[in-house]
Amino acid sequence: MQSFEIAVFEGDGIGPEIMRPTVSILKAMSEASSDYDLAFSVVPAGAANYAQTGESFPEQSMDVARKASAILLSAMGLPDVRYPDGTEISPQIDIRKRLDLFAGVRPVRVNAAALSPLTIPDGKEIDFVLIRESTEGLFYTQGCGEVEANEARETLRITREVSEKLFRFAFDLAGQRRTQGSGPGHVTCVDKANVFRAFAFFREIFDAEAARHPDITNDHAYVDATALWMVQRPWDFDVMVTENMFGDILSDLGAGIMGGLGVAPSADIGLEHAVFQPCHGSAPDIAGQGVANPFAMILSAAMMLNWLGVRHDHAGLLADGAQLQAAVDRVLMRGNALTRDLGGTAGTNEAADAVAAALREK
Ligand code: ATP
Prior knowledge:
By secondary structure, the chain is of the alpha/beta class. The protein is built from eleven helices and twelve strands. The chain binds adenosine-5'-triphosphate (ATP).
């Protein structure tokens, strides 16, 4: 029996509402498993915590996160709780930098065709992963860009060190997906190498990494064309990897393809640590009403089980990650426990209970 420590940040707004049923599902899976055990430590951080204590990310919480096997994080931030300089409280961004979580992993998978605004031809499936570099790129000068009376400047930074780690991660992920039957083993580098020297540099590093993975095919695409193809033929992608700002924009396009932020999971992964969280924010407009959609949070938890399974070569975790994802898919396909944002009437707990029931069907 292998034990894993999970740090849990319940966050702000709808955060606790979607995290609690997710942790309940994970606890039930762990209790039913004879070969792994998950232990959960709920730790404070976020805007509400800042309002109460003056600390947005207590160092003790960071210590728990650093020592954990994996980190589950719900949405954080509240529009009217800000630092004295007016900026938003966003520990979910701080943690990426503190723990070197350079790979923002955004699966774009249409679980239920009815939820997607696209018409998916027979025999085609939308199932690809967008990897967004998360520590540099055009976010390098985030919060410290220069603004003068008639001019403003931000800096785009691409480093060899981070790019090499990023591309290695992308090729490894394409290999894992192929092993798991999710993709053919193909990586697309998304850039703007025809216009910017920094992206030509990015592409050159990509090509060098590609040469180390002769078993995985690869190509390049400009970011503007990628936006077009994500709408016209998204089923052709497997793994795409790109710069921070391009990835920021394309990942919302990806969420749109899936049917909205409510079904879009994500992970921020580094060499030592990983955070799993939904793509959406804390939705303060619906907080406290019990109507938030828990599916993106639950799918992020499934990604966590899969990541732990790959990292620790643990078949039980891999199987349970796949089961949890399949259970959410079944609920979304049946369409009888959808939350309001997906056109249904189910509350948060009813939707999460439907996933728990679907898991028991196996
Ligand atoms: P952030 O900048 O922190 O990502 P945001 O301002 O872009 O946040 P969200 O908090 O994601 O916005 O909310 C955008 C809209 O989507 C809101 O109307 C919110 O109610 C809705 N929304 C977000 N997440 C969910 C969810 N899990 N269930 C239902 N509705 C949601």
